Amino acid sequence: MRSLTEALAAPLGDADATIQSMEDASPAKWHLAHTTWFFETFLLSEHVDGYEPFDPDWAFLFNSYYESHGERNARFNRGMISRPSLDEVLAYRAHVNAAMEPLLADDELAPLVVLGCAHEQQHQELLLTDIKHALFQNPLGPAMFDAARDPAAKRCEPEWLSYPGGIAKIGHQSDGFAYDCEGPSHRALLEPFAMRSTLVTNREWAEFVADGGYDDALLWLSDGWAWVQENDVQAPLYWRDGEQFTHAGWRARDPDAPVTHISYFEADAFATWAGRRLPTEFEWEAIARGQDCPECDAAFDSAAGNQLDAGRIGATPVMPRGGTELFGDCWQWTRSAYLPFPRFRPAEGAVGEYNGKFMSGQFVLKGASCATARGHSRASYRNFFYPHQRWQFTGLRLAKDI
Amino acid sequence: MRSLTEALAAPLGDADATIQSMEDASPAKWHLAHTTWFFETFLLSEHVDGYEPFDPDWAFLFNSYYESHGERNARFNRGMISRPSLDEVLAYRAHVNAAMEPLLADDELAPLVVLGCAHEQQHQELLLTDIKHALFQNPLGPAMFDAARDPAAKRCEPEWLSYPGGIAKIGHQSDGFAYDCEGPSHRALLEPFAMRSTLVTNREWAEFVADGGYDDALLWLSDGWAWVQENDVQAPLYWRDGEQFTHAGWRARDPDAPVTHISYFEADAFATWAGRRLPTEFEWEAIARGQDCPECDAAFDSAAGNQLDAGRIGATPVMPRGGTELFGDCWQWTRSAYLPFPRFRPAEGAVGEYNGKFMSGQFVLKGASCATARGHSRASYRNFFYPHQRWQFTGLRLAKDI
Amino acid sequence: MRSLTEALAAPLGDADATIQSMEDASPAKWHLAHTTWFFETFLLSEHVDGYEPFDPDWAFLFNSYYESHGERNARFNRGMISRPSLDEVLAYRAHVNAAMEPLLADDELAPLVVLGCAHEQQHQELLLTDIKHALFQNPLGPAMFDAARDPAAKRCEPEWLSYPGGIAKIGHQSDGFAYDCEGPSHRALLEPFAMRSTLVTNREWAEFVADGGYDDALLWLSDGWAWVQENDVQAPLYWRDGEQFTHAGWRARDPDAPVTHISYFEADAFATWAGRRLPTEFEWEAIARGQDCPECDAAFDSAAGNQLDAGRIGATPVMPRGGTELFGDCWQWTRSAYLPFPRFRPAEGAVGEYNGKFMSGQFVLKGASCATARGHSRASYRNFFYPHQRWQFTGLRLAKDI
Amino acid sequence: MRSLTEALAAPLGDADATIQSMEDASPAKWHLAHTTWFFETFLLSEHVDGYEPFDPDWAFLFNSYYESHGERNARFNRGMISRPSLDEVLAYRAHVNAAMEPLLADDELAPLVVLGCAHEQQHQELLLTDIKHALFQNPLGPAMFDAARDPAAKRCEPEWLSYPGGIAKIGHQSDGFAYDCEGPSHRALLEPFAMRSTLVTNREWAEFVADGGYDDALLWLSDGWAWVQENDVQAPLYWRDGEQFTHAGWRARDPDAPVTHISYFEADAFATWAGRRLPTEFEWEAIARGQDCPECDAAFDSAAGNQLDAGRIGATPVMPRGGTELFGDCWQWTRSAYLPFPRFRPAEGAVGEYNGKFMSGQFVLKGASCATARGHSRASYRNFFYPHQRWQFTGLRLAKDI
């Protein structure tokens, strides 16, 4: 699993892996090291007698936001860490991987190992979205992957998937891994509604733009309108004329592909313009639980798989083969704020800082994107971002009351 | 009803009524004029043939955030409007009041008139909180009201009010006035919980401070901790040693009075420290619907009533006589984000900009404060502010799962 | 002399006198009080046994930048001081004036009294420029003075005043009052040059604008171009179409009047565009010492005089009657940085903070404006502002090498 | 000469050469490419028929501030250019060097070639100061050079070098290369003064710190005090306890070495504290013209020379062997603003943007630092920086009136 991270970083040079384009993003090298630090700190240092850290100073460098684990390197300073080099960080990974071997058989530690792997999978996605944003800053528009295979998205006819209302079972319900914020499983009361079977496409978004969507204050949330004005927003992030910036550089935009890289503000304005609304996270999950999670849409499985799908990441995202596009194209904004489920308790200890502390000001996104690791998709997954953020593969799906 | 606004502004000079201390607050003169502009714009100009605006330029000056009604005077510029003077604005009020007389009997217009009055009541509260913040900037700490009567708060023993869970009816359910966001009335599913009968007091808050509450990152939401650090927050707004700034200037703090002027971040951190949590808006409303709304706690009824209670406003807030302190002491933060109820639709026309557009990033507060107009309190009322804001009379009430 | 200050403030209401439009400017009330504080602090408190301050708290409020005299009220907070009211401040002035009476005959104190008066004269000018900026923020464009008399400026033919070069005597050379920075008198070596007899007019400036002066980066200093871009500057401050904002509100612009309210950046760019340059302060002073200081141009002499000239202030500035427009129209940017003269020593004691501490980053302006008190003009006077500032009556005069 | 640039960059990895720590600084890779772009743009493209740019897109990337040469890559974005890689930039250098060969014999182009070399020498110094600042951000404090040889500075007794006053000849006076702003040569009138023979040392600065120099507002220029407060300045840049950050990492501070990395504000405050003042640029030059320029102090001569002196750069700067420390230790702040000399005219064409446009808000520094290329030192050289900047090797020398 961890080797995928190296595979994703393989096309990057030392400089590519070092730069940081904004506070929200981190350097690729940092992702490589921070995920390793997680294993070293929470597993090796605590459970292996006499384990010596690879380099004691690195704990400071590669901690992220665990306030209980000492002063952190100020977040925006991550892009200043030219040393250790990419090669040294890769050696760090090899060292920790080797040291972890004996622990993988320890059943007691299994939950922590699984958490470390899930954590790494999250950072695999962030590595991809962060480096995309960094390369985008370069006027030369450099490509990270080839885009040899770039199948056009199939045009699907949207349908309305109806739900009769009633009490739905929400939240993580199996024995598999899930983050603390996905539970406890609980009941939610839903009114009758319908959700569209397909995501909103670039073609539909272009109509919104052409209709003056970005110029009509009445379509926007108040904070959204302020954001549009202040940043002179006129299109999704990464749009330029008929093109879109991708991991394979600037490419022609596929009108039938789902729109991506939009903020919550944009998603909400679009829904208002379309006379619809965004679904709640509960509505989305209720629909998703009645559907099969389409495995074929998962983006990455292994390093091999990644080599195979590099073109896909490089290209504009393509429509999945059939299905309802729930997973594997883009994260879908819901109108639900990221808040605790009833009876939620943060996990004990340092890892308890993981999710609960972010429960203000953010919105839940459901599904999974083309950059999400395959095993990391499930109906109960709650991704969350601030309403102005859009450097992730974020899109939307419409809903309506019935 | 409107005469209360003038009564509240009576202790203010022209200069007092002109200054603006921050973007969130508005000058008293602006509140006086803006509420009048509402009647002139939505009633007189649209429903009285040949009505001439008092001054056509004032529409621009005193519009607030209605994007559909033309360019507004940039919000932070409100404090630059030394002219018209306070006297001229009072003349404007008299003029519009007189012109409104014939319309008060028109049943068709009644909903708009009622909305205009509710709007004015909101601004009465804002006038009080905004001028308090403005006077607080003055190192001389000037008083606006006398504080002759200042009864100490009674010390009440807190109890836990239990709720068995189940489906509760939430939202506005009577024929009386309510804002669009209070409806539609709908069902909500609640798990068993208990809510404390009393508000958190200054005494309890002082314990939190003494215990290092403001220095322990682990108690705080991530955004809250950043806010504490950036603003060097060490106590509620308006605290200074054993004193508290009030409308009657700096006064000794009553330990048994409810703590006020805290942010959501602080409320949440306190609850975490206390091993409890904040209630949801649905839990709060469910409890409140089982209680009588204690009329005796309402702050203002008439200009006369205001004269009477000026001391109360000037003083530190006092405990209500018995009851559960639901209304009339302070707004109580809930852990619910301010979002639309199921099947919510904004009102048609310009007044539809009233509430729906603020549905991102804010939290719901329930109850009513000592500065809330008496007729403006009801169980379905949804006040909302950003989690860092605390210049309103904001406090908290603890809840727990059972 | 001090009664002129009251006369200038006479058209202002309490609110007008309280507001502050930017950090560079101060409220009129503050000017009234601060100049009084100067007399109270440096004369009454130090030289009158048993003198009781009018109000001890006001020392904090009305100190300006004398670091040695205790913590100051943060500069941008001055606009929050709604109390004391304008009337109370006027009472403060009367109180201090009365207390000063006996000291006026004391020869030993005469230098400090003269400094206090010069200080007050500076603030008279600032009071006028600051309130103009504040009223300008008001979309209603209110007038402070009538503009009954508004004689059109006479069109003068510009001539070149030549100077042969050589050693000039620079700096304050008489027994009259001067600030410390005007001395010591010293020799300066000048190359041959010529300076224009007239100021640059609105007409000439309009040609610069029409020729794309604000759009051609090559005309500008690097910092100037950044300032133009960041603030989207397209014209002098207070220009709007063919109008100009004045103390008498919006008025038609007189093309033959000197251009005013320009920054150093603009003055320098204009000179470059015109193929000329700005004079140095030494060149300007050398020319001025060969000219009579035209008394008729001085703006104010007494309260009566002010009443008389209120229209002049209200109007666009008018050309002086003959002469070389050195004094009484506008301050003229020189290309000299504000730095100490050879052998300069700041005055001893607190008043020594007066000038020397501002000697970095600012440019010298010579002459006097239409808002400068009559007795406050002299050839050695060194006014100074940052190169981006332009809310004073600032203009320019061209020079060239010969 | 250009090979020294490569030699200086030799210890840097691709990531080291890419990062940018602040807007004032540029990545090493950018320095390498920008100096090359200068030769390509002003020599090859204009004077070689059929010359094809190495890569047409790079002109945009590696232009700096020549407004006449097209839109530039926003300055703070330079740190985002991970591609081209360091190797590719070195190939660019080789390509342009080869293409330049035939032009070196062309007498007509000699002035531009010399300018290009001088420009490169400036960037050699900036490369060293910028990478030092970037590595300083890294909590690991990485070293770029070894510090094998680190001779302690010799303790010199300071003497006062007197100057009798009179007319001095100032500005560039030989046939050698000089920037346009160093001329025209002209006369300046000086009063009698004395200048210290030695630079202020770390030992003296430590006394200033110990005496509360950073806490006494009265010692500081007004802007300087604001800068101290806002940035919480307590010592020169790169000081930490008894250590100093150098190109060889954190090293013990030599008390007898000249203090470096101080702002003009600090230099001025120190001089005030010491009861002295800073010299003017004219005083400094007049003294320097009476001294031999000590060749032995020049830091770099060739790549070989650089290898030799790497330890010197890495170490704390050392006292020169005898002499008056005019050149080769640190740039010395003067109290002269950076302004045009009499009859100054910017050079024609694009290279005319080189110096004149920076003539506002900056101060002149004289001498040369340990990072200045040997051939780049001369008495007429005018370096200039804003008064708050201190990432260069900046120090001071005291003067006094006599």
Written account of the structure:
- Four copies of one chain form a homotetramer.
- Chain A has 402 residues and is α+β, with helices and mostly antiparallel strands.
- Chain A is 31% helix and 13% strand.
- Chain A has ten helices and twelve strands.
- The first copy, chain A, has helices at 2-9, 28-47, 58-62, 86-100, 110-136, 202-210, 222-231, 264-273, 281-289, 303-314, and strands at residues 160-163, 166-170, 186-190, 193-196, 239-240, 243-246, 249-252, 327-337, 363-369, 383-385, 394-395, 399-401.
- A four-stranded mixed β-sheet of chain A has the order 10-9-8-11. A three-stranded antiparallel β-sheet of chain A has the order 1-4-12, covered by helices on one side. A three-stranded antiparallel β-sheet of chain A has the order 5-6-7, with no helix packed on it.
- In chain A, α2 packs parallel to α4 (86-100).
- Mean pLDDT of chain A is 87; it is low at 292-312 and 314-322.
- Chains in contact: A-B, A-D, B-C, C-D.
- Chains A and B meet through β3, α7, α8 and β8 of A and β3, α7, α8 and β9 of B.
- Chains A, B, C, D: Residues 2-109 form the DinB-like domain.
- Chains A, B, C, D: InterPro entries: CTDL_fold, DinB-like, EgtB, Sulfatase_Mod_Factor_Kinase, SUMF_dom, SUMF_sf.
